[in-house]
């Protein structure tokens, strides 16, 4: 766990334990080409990479020289940033880094008397550079932020959490100073200068890294940092999230999300910025949901953030991202034993996402959950809304069942009606078996004990 990369998105298991997102399945972090500039380490007018630690050359000591070009696990020095970056991506380096980290994690002061004095050269150089950057923070936060941010990324792979945390805290403090005063971002065109956009993006990455780091030890602190990072990036107050958490009403959460998204001050005009925002919302919501196993109140904050992600993605014309948020909400309610709230997800699907794969199953599942709770009023409202635009044999049959039940004040199903359903099932199940099986199970298992006429086990 100590070696988990905090600069990549985490996913969490049912116990709230973090792990890296599989890059082949679900990593929504915006991808950059090998020649793309590193955020926060270049001039806004430059297209060439800048070695951030070279910015310290103006300071009296040269103890930081070569820090970013020395690979401790492989014990190699590199003459240029490009060759160093290429080496970091090689299989040989990754193997050496894993072996070095395994050895380091197995050592302790009690088992290795020399461990206190044995420090990687990278760590030694980082500490010296960090002290110089901290001293520079008040005079030139642009340079200090760049150096501290890159030190955090360099040191994290060695499991030195306390150094990484200190570097992240210092970098964020400098970034916040630059966010409050644009004059502190460095002269335009100079190495180490920050644009408003690169500052915003890197502040988010820094705060998410802090939250991931804290998730190893304190879920409560990590949850607070995750929410703070998202609110800061979107430019919103956490008050609306607090309201949704208190109300515990999905419909109300959707209303608040719409208003909140309408009030977001940032434009997010570039597609990659929109993708980063949606990805951040998904990670934060998933983290809070995982933490809710031990802190139950966080479940509703997760609901609020998924609702915001849906509204934001719709506003930015990202139907797939919006539908993903709805699916995650539906799964959240099911896993928390709140399946009856799935009707709110079904309403969103009917309004916006009927062209998406699996959308009809979400509606059918919500109707089935309403039947399970014997809430025929909720089921009837869903079916009426669905049939108004997308009427199908299964939905028409269930609407008739609900209508006649309301008229008779009891569950209605005559022999002819059951025969009708059996024919519908056999004729249509092949085309969408999942939907028809959901309805079949709801009718047979949930409503059967209350029917005037109960079908036999071989009725269909």
Give short descriptive properties of this protein.
single chain; disordered C terminus; 460 residues; two-stranded antiparallel sheet; two-stranded antiparallel ribbon; mainly alpha; 2% strand
Could you walk me through the main structural features you see in this protein, from its secondary elements to its overall organization?
- There is one protein chain.
- With 460 residues, the protein is an all-alpha fold.
- The chain is 60% helix and 2% strand.
- It is built from 18 helices and 4 strands.
- The chain has helices at residues 81-88, 91-106, 121-136, 141-156, 161-180, 196-214, 219-234, 239-247, 250-262, 271-291, 298-315, 319-335, 342-352, 359-372, 376-390, 393-408, 415-428, 433-447, and strands spanning 10-12, 18-20, 70-71, 76-77.
- A two-stranded antiparallel sheet has the order 1-2. Strands 3-4 form a two-stranded antiparallel sheet.
- A hairpin with a 5-residue loop joins β1 (10-12) and β2.
- α8 (239-247) crosses α11.
- The longest helix is centred in the middle third of the chain and has 21 residues, at 271-291.
- The radius of gyration is 28 Å and the shape is elongated.
- The two termini are 52 Å apart.
- Residues 22-53, 58-68, 107-117 and 453-460 have low confidence and may be disordered.
Concise synopsis of the structure shown:
The protein is mostly helical. Helices cover about 60% and strands about 0% of the residues.
């Amino acid at each position: 766990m100590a070696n988990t990369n905090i600069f990549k998105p985490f996913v969490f298991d049912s116990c709230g334990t973090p792990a890296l997102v599989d890059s082949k399945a679900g990593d929504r972090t915006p991808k950059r080409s090998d020649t793309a500039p590193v955020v926060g380490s270049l001039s806004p007018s430059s297209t060439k990479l800048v070695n951030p630690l070279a910015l310290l050359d103006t300071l009296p000591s040269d103890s930081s020289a070569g820090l970013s070009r020395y690979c401790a696990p492989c014990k190699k020095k590199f003459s240029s940033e490009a060759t160093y970056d290429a080496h970091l991506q090689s299989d040989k380096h990754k193997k050496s880094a894993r072996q070095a980290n395994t050895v380091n994690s197995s050592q302790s002061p009690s088992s290795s008397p020399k461990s206190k004095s044995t420090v990687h050269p990278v760590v030694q150089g980082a500490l010296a550079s960090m002290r110089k950057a901290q001293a520079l923070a008040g005079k030139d936060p642009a340079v200090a932020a760049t150096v501290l941010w890159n030190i955090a990324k360099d040191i994290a792979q060695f499991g030195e959490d306390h150094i990484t945390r200190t570097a992240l805290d210092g970098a964020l403090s400098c970034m916040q100073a630059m966010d409050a005063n644009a004059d502190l971002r460095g002269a335009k065109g100079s190495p180490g200068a920050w644009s408003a956009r690169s500052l915003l993006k890197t502040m988010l990455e820094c705060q998410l890294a802090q939250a991931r780091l804290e998730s190893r030890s304190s879920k409560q602190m990590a949850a607070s940092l995750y929410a703070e990072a998202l609110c800061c990036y979107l430019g919103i107050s956490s008050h609306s999230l607090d309201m949704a958490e208190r109300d515990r009403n999905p419909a109300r959460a959707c209303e608040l999300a719409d208003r909140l998204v309408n009030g977001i001050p940032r434009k997010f005009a570039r597609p990659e910025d929109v993708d980063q925002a949606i990805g951040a919302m998904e990670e934060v919501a998933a983290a809070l949901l995982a933490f809710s196993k031990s802190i139950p109140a966080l479940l509703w904050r997760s609901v609020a953030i998924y609702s915001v992600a849906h509204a934001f993605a719709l506003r930015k014309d990202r139907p797939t991202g919006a539908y993903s948020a709805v699916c995650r909400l539906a799964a959240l309610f099911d896993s928390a034993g709140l399946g009856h709230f799935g009707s709110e997800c079904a309403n969103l699907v009917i309004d916006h996402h009927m062209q998406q794969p699996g959308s009809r199953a979400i509606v059918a599942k919500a109707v089935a959950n309403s039947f399970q709770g014997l809430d025929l009023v909720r089921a009837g409202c869903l079916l009426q809304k669905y049939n108004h635009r997308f009427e199908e044999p299964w939905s028409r049959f269930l609407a008739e069942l609900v209508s006649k039940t309301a008229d008779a004040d009891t569950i209605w199903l005559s022999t002819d009606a059951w025969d009708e359903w059996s024919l519908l099932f056999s004729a249509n199940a092949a085309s969408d078996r999942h939907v028809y099986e959901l309805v079949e199970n709801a009718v047979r298992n949930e409503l059967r004990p209350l029917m005037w006429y109960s079908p036999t086990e071989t009725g269909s």
